[in-house]
Amino acid sequence: MLYIFDLDGTLRVTKSGRPCPNYYNDQIILPGVYNKLQQLNSAYHILAVASNQNGVAAGYMTPDMAVSLAHETEQLLGIKFSAMEFSFFNDRSKPNPTMAMKLLDQFRTGECVIIGNQYSDFEFAINTNSMSFSRAKFVYAHDFFGWGDNYVARNYCGYFPREWLCRWQLRKRIKA
């Protein structure tokens, strides 16, 4: 089975409270992610990433830096993803299904599970189903990794780890 993961808020969060890491050693792997991905990898499932990296378009980082930080995530997890698809300049950003379609084509499969934490990830799965003969099942990260209700908080974009969301909101207040 092909599993397509979002990165930020799904597999990792930042220590700094930023939406995504912009520099090395600013990421924390979320609870349960390491063990779950190791299990899937051991069972020979295909693990891939599809991630919007809007920080590139905003000028916070380069495409090379975004890819390097994704490789740092792989190192922290002790696995290598079979493929990584990124949208740097909003041309293929989720909920546009282009990244999923490319992964489905690459692995010649019509089925996948998409795991994410935002409503745009959910819409990404719906749009993937409507654009092809594929079946994309969607699962929210907090359900997939078994995070308890006390661990996640919901806001206008989706579900986020509560502690990180507090750091992000505090960071926004300080900047204002």
Looking at this protein, list some descriptive labels:
176 residues; 5-stranded parallel beta sheet; 9 strands; 23% strand; Rossmann fold
Compact summary:
By secondary structure, the protein is an alpha/beta fold.
List the SSEs and their pairings.
Layout: E1 2-5, E2 12-14, E3 27-29, H1 33-42, E4 46-52, H2 54-57, H3 63-77, E5 83-87, H4 98-106, E6 111-116, H5 119-130, E7 135-140, H6 141-144, E8 152-154, E9 159-161, H7 162-175
Parallel strand pairs: 1-4, 1-6, 4-5, 6-7
Antiparallel strand pairs: 2-3, 8-9
Could you please describe the fold and organization of this structure?
- This protein has 176 residues and is α/β, with parallel strands linked by helices.
- It has a single domain (2-175), classed as Rossmann fold, CATH 3.40.50.1000.
- Helix content is 39%, strand content 23%.
- It is built from 7 helices and 9 strands.
- The chain has helices at residues 33-42, 54-57, 63-77, 98-106, 119-130, 141-144, 162-175, and strands at 2-5, 12-14, 27-29, 46-52, 83-87, 111-116, 135-140, 152-154, 159-161.
- The strands form 3 sheets. It has a 5-stranded parallel β-sheet with strand order 5-4-1-6-7.
- Helix 5 (119-130) links the parallel strand 6 and strand 7.
- The mean pLDDT is 92.
